[in-house]
Amino acid sequence: MIEGEQKGPLELHELPGAGVRPDTFVWCKGMDDWRRAREVADISRFYRQHISDLMHPVSMPAESPAANTDERAYSGMPRFDRFLQNQDASSAPGKLPEPDYNLPPRTMLVESVILTIFCFPLTGFVAIYYAMLTRREWSKGNKKEAHEFSRRAKMWAGITFFLGVMLYALIGRQAGK
């Protein structure tokens, strides 16, 4: 009932345009009597979603002609476009995007020291070495080299962590026998 007049039937998406508000009485098949729109679960759910959509509009990027033939089309698996966004069509598959050389790289010095102490010292020292080279090259102004040493420090920190986990698993297994 809108302004005392029965209107309808209406689809859910037509309700806001017809003037249906939370206090408007509505009736649909299966209901015993007229009820306020806010008391009908489907209508309440629709309005919550409608309000959410109005408050948080999603801007759709302009679709490029090649988007329809994109080999990375959705296949049910998660897409990692943020890692691929800086690649152009000529870049090799699997190649990482270039870092921003204006920002200082992460040195990984603290992480490397901790991993050296608690995980696997031999490779940990290599991670510390590259972390120190990262700092030195950045202070000299060699930005590209600093980023390369940072990448190597991260790699060796990862290797140190992995070997430490393997070592602890081996020790734990031997202790359990």
Topology:
Blueprint: H1 15-18, E1 25-26, E2 35-36, H2 41-55, H3 81-84, H4 109-118, H5 121-140, H6 143-175
Strand order of the largest sheet: 1-2
Overall mean pLDDT: 78
Order of SSEs: HEEHHHHH
Give the DSSP E fraction (strand runs of 2 or more residues): under 5%
Rg over alpha carbons: 30 Å
Alpha plus pi helix count = 6
Terminal Cα span = 78 Å
Helix-strand makeup class: mainly alpha
What does the main sheet amount to?
2 strands, antiparallel
Strand tally is: 2
Overall description:
The chain is an all-alpha fold and 177 residues long. Among the domains are: 12-55, no CATH class; 109-175. It is built from six helices and two strands; from the N terminus they run αββααααα. It has helices at residues 15-18, 41-55, 81-84, 109-118, 121-140, 143-175; strands at 25-26, 35-36. The chain has a two-stranded antiparallel ribbon. β1 (25-26) and β2 form a beta hairpin. α5 (121-140) runs antiparallel to α6 (143-175). It starts with 14 loop residues before the first helix and ends with a helix. The model is unreliable at 65-90 (pLDDT under 50).
